[in-house]
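JOB MANIFEST
job_type = single_chain_structure
chain_count = 1
residues = 664
[input]
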Amino acid sequence: MPLQKLQLRPGVNRESTSLSNEGTWFEMDKVRFRSGYPEKIGGWVRDTGGYFVNGVSLPPETGSYWGVARALFNWITLAGFNLMAVGTNLKYYIQQTNGGSFYDVTPLRRTATITGTAFTTVNASTTVTVNDPGHGAQDGDFVTISGVAGAVNGIPAAALNREFRIVYVNSNSYTITTSSPATSGSTAGTATFAYQIQIGSDVYTVGVGWGAGGWGGVTTGSPSTGWGSAAPAGVGVGVQLRLWSQDNFGDYLVLNPRGGAVYLWVPAATPTIYNRAQVLSSTNTNTQDAQQYWLTDTSCPTVANIVATSDTSRFVIAFGCNDLPATMGGVAPTTLDPLLVRWSDQEDYKVWYPQATNQAGSYRLNIGSSIVAQLQSRQEILIWTDAALYSMQYLGPPLVWGFQILGDNISIMGPNATATAANITYWMGKDKFYMYSGRVETLYCPLRQYIFGDINLDQSYQFFASTNEAFNEIWFFYCSANSNTIDRYVIFNHLEKIWAYGNLARTAWIDSPLRNFPTAAGYNGQLIYHEDGVDDGSTNPPSPLPAYIQSADFNIGDGHNYGFVWRMIPDITFDGSRVNNPSVTFSMRPRQNPGSNYGTAPTPAVTSTLNYQTQRNYLVQQFTQIVYTRIRGRQMAFKISSDGLGVQWQLGVPSIDVRPDSRR
């Protein structure tokens, strides 16, 4: 028989059996398609920024920031500061430039000064009880202590005047752990306690029994949470994970923890001074800058699920929020209405009361039970409820904004499961993918059964999507069925209309033109820059990035006779590698019949003869010319893999030499 080319259709297909997908690819990890040919994806490096609070460097438990990041937002101020906002389940940070420090700007919810009885100590113990009646903190919250003038029972003031995590005792006290032990036991000390907003969960959880859920919780979409949610003992109450939404209003940043208040962060004139975000309220007691930034009218939303701004028309918009005060014609003004959309006056985020002299207003959607997501696209804002897609378009006075239903009976996974590329919006639904290009359509996916047949829908609010525009890709991240954390991704190349998939743990992603590389967040408190290098640079030293792709099974001839493969002719490029003589492994995996296991097969190495440490690209590729093997079967699958440091590759069109063999 002549040499048989292994020229397969681009993309991967898991919608049927391996043999029925003959002629295409079937399994893969850390591989993409570029110009129709599979190649190893780019590597990544870790951001090296440190962690600061109140101007003092403090190491968190791991990485560069506390918690699991679910939100990344990048913008440049008029002064030219390149800022990255990072919202985690524990805190909110601002970072300036790649590798810059992470500054804690988490809003405060309460400040209290306790005189004479602030601390209770035990001799020789580093555990200190804080006595603050009605502190309102929960286990794991953060408090910053200041104003301790001298040692308290032998504990130096410097060991107390800092940030701590709280261990809840009761509603009037909690404990902290100091770096120095007490030398006596008593109650003493005067201090001021600044409590950050309560921390959130990093995953969706279900509690049982009386009071499961957060105290004073509100319905925030999927599902309802909070004390008094009418769940009897023994019945689970869902506690949703902490998600942030944010958008810039010029230099300023408007931000909102889902189901919480609306805050504003204002950059200081000096880039190394980072003040905390402040609540937008008519009763804001902050004295910084005479309250000029944060003091609003009395109709400003006090609770919302999502906050955003309109870029061109300059409104701040709250999606799923409380209504106007009753004195202004509102209904249940302190209760979150999950379908209500409200917007401020144009060019003024502090005015929310609608009058004939301004453009503030509101509109309540009527399909679905809650607003799940929003995304600004072209000349409209797209709004997803749990049952429909709306278009929100600026009309100008007197109507201001118009709303139109684009699609009914659709679904969406979560608030961050959307992405826009080339003026087309893509999102992940509960059982399929969608696209919107002027009309709502189902996006064909040859991985649909593989993805949605092995998925943890309870954790759907973790799922997210983003772009990787350098490669014309949309990346969707999700949790497999047996995982409560994100462990998988699927890629849609919107230019070539092909799919890829693999395993990767990330929690957020932003593909910003203001940064050199796409920026992701990992589970270890790190920002990670993708497509930088060819290895896993989140470790020190970098680790290899294993990658492979395997074809679907193909028959030898018509499958009637066995075939004997005795040699392979490689075709590959190692351009982009960073080592001398990079190599990959080629292998043929034989089967006797479609239902049998794969047999064992040699795994010959294909090695470049070139030194990529000194040159990244070569006009003429030189590598192993022929690899020999001995494989017998009716069906076979071809696999290429790599697991070495500094290796990058793209497959071409290899060939195999097959001899006819017997029928049994």
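[summary]
The chain has two helices and 56 strands.
Residues 208-235 have pLDDT under 50 and may be disordered.
exit_status = 0
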